[in-house]
Amino acid sequence: MSVVTASSRTPPTKTQGQVVIETSQLTKRYGKFTAVDNLNLTVHRGEVFGLLGPNGAGKTTTILMLLGLTEPTSGSVRVLGFDPSREPLDVKARVGYLPDAIGFYDELTARENLAYIARLNGLSQAEAAKRIPAAIERMGLGEVIDHPVATFSRGMRQRLGVAELLLKQPEIIIMDEPTLGLDPEAAHNFLNMILQLKQEGITILLSSHLLHQVQQVCDRVGLFSNGRMMISGTVADLAQRVLRGGYRITVQARGEADVLKRALLALPGVQKVEQTQPETFVIHGAHDLRSDAASAVVNAGGKLYGLDVEAPSLDEIYSVYFKEASNGAGS
Amino acid sequence: MAQAVKVQSPAAQPVSQARKRKGSPWTGLWAVVAKEMADHLSSVRMQILEVLILLTAVGTVYAVMQGVRQTVGQDPFIFLRLFTTAREPLPAFIGFLSFLVPLIAISMSFDAVNGEFNRRTMSRVLAQPIYRDALLMGKFLAGFFTLALVLTAIWLLVMGMGILGLGLPPSGEEVARSLIFLVATIFYGGIWLALGMVFSVVFRQPATAALGALAVWLFFTIFWGMLTSLLARLISPVTYGTAQELLRQIQTEQALSRISPNTLYVEATLGILNPAIRSFGILLPTQLEGAIVGAPLPLAQSLMLIWPQLTGLIAATILLFALAYVLFQRQEIRA
Lengths: 331, 335
Prior knowledge:
The complex is a heterodimer. In chain A, 38% of the residues lie in helices and 28% in strands. Chain A is α/β, with parallel strands linked by helices. In chain A, helix 7 packs parallel to helix 8 (211-217). Chain B has 13 helices and no strands. In chain B, helix 3 (44-68) packs antiparallel against helix 5 and helix 9 (172-202) packs parallel to helix 13 (299-330). The A-B interface holds A 24-25, 60-61, 64, 67, 69-76, 83, 85-90, 92-93, 95-97, 99, 101-106, 116-117, 119-122, 161, 164 and B 7-8, 11-15, 17-18, 20-23, 27-28, 31-32, 34-35, 119-121, 123-131, 332-335.
């Protein structure tokens, strides 16, 4: 098995899987307010897609329409080939949903809460008795399976929510702000769990405004603002388009400052070179220019002491793209 | 611009076709009923009210039996007296019921829908493969079945105490009459159950919904009786004092008072539990022609007498539930 690591490790990004979620010109209006405006979204099987944007950008409304919990004003939605507003049961049997503010029946135990969900999903008693402890065990709640949910912390509730998703064995999981309100460690574990689910071949659509977290797990993201999806693609893709690269290479070198700066500027793909300290230069480039920069410094007769790269972050992409939108929302 | 319009038209098509839903609206109904009934039967507030009903049943029936022991031989409907006879200082058992049944029903339903929103379980439950119909219907049926279960248990208890205390079995007609009384009581509760449900859909705060439902109940128990006589005087005034005018005013008042479910319930139960009653309101001499005063009506005739009241109770239950249903279907789920 380990012989073929090289080929099997590369994710199948080129051979994109079948389309599992597709919306076209999807629009939702509440009176005069347009919550979602002509949304065209495509999600492929097995990928993790992030819907990103400020609160009130229309992410939750989009999710509700995907689940058939809200009727679209116009446009069409297809989830696994079903129309959520006409065949919601088919959609909801195959799609797991983790709402942003997740609640359980506090007076019931974890097991009883999941048992109710199992019955609503039409699982047989025997099947439920098998799946429920397995799902709860897997989320690390095995010890509190018979405790009332009232005693659970926010993180535990979140994990119980995921246990509920596992119980359904869905093809697609939709999560609304899944890491909101979790402490950093819990959030980290949660993101790892998302990657595990992805390994199992489950398609995941998640919405968030915590960009640095989402960046770690999403294959593709779509940036939302005022009900519109402004731009979508892989993070590198967006960085290329929005920041024209977004790589920042810090070079620490001693030598003739002007000569070094000119040499660095002459490299292909360099947009800007700043001298932040006497011996420190920051290069803004379209890609990772470290080796080019190193040889440029050496060739220009400088002495290289340090070289560091900062990959483009979603936060940056986001703030550049949405300066106006976030200003408006913040007021 | 033209291009945008062109793209819009094929995309808009599926929405117009989307009127018909696939799959049964009752999928998952019984899962909801089972869960809600378990909640009701184990909840403290229900247990308190059940104990209260139990105490009143035992108290009133015991008091009645002290009084009727001597006349057991003469009265053919002695078992029905257990429900209707009041003995100082206790009112009759049906008096207690007309008071306690609305309380039980409202206490079961006032947080049915808004409670799910407040616990943030609504979107999670509706993300399961069920329709909203199943959730609301399941909640209503669970309340209704709980009510039926509790009231049937009380009914059996009263009958059992009667057999033990009086030393004779109830006749077939007594059983039939008291069973109809049981059905009327259950649907009387159904009205308040459905009303509580309407308020639980309309108001997001359970406390507001509970107070609203109780206010309606108080209005009909206490104030409606006063209002009807005032309204009747306005609608059908007596200007010349003729018999016809007086009669019309009384009829108007009676019709108005029957808007209240309490009136319907009291008339229905009295009519079926007291076979001697042959008419509600004023009795015209023509109605008494050839009748022996105090002689019991046959069961079928008593049933015919209370038929409008009985169907009124059932219809009100269904109408109020339909209202809750429509309101709930239009509600946005995001919360």
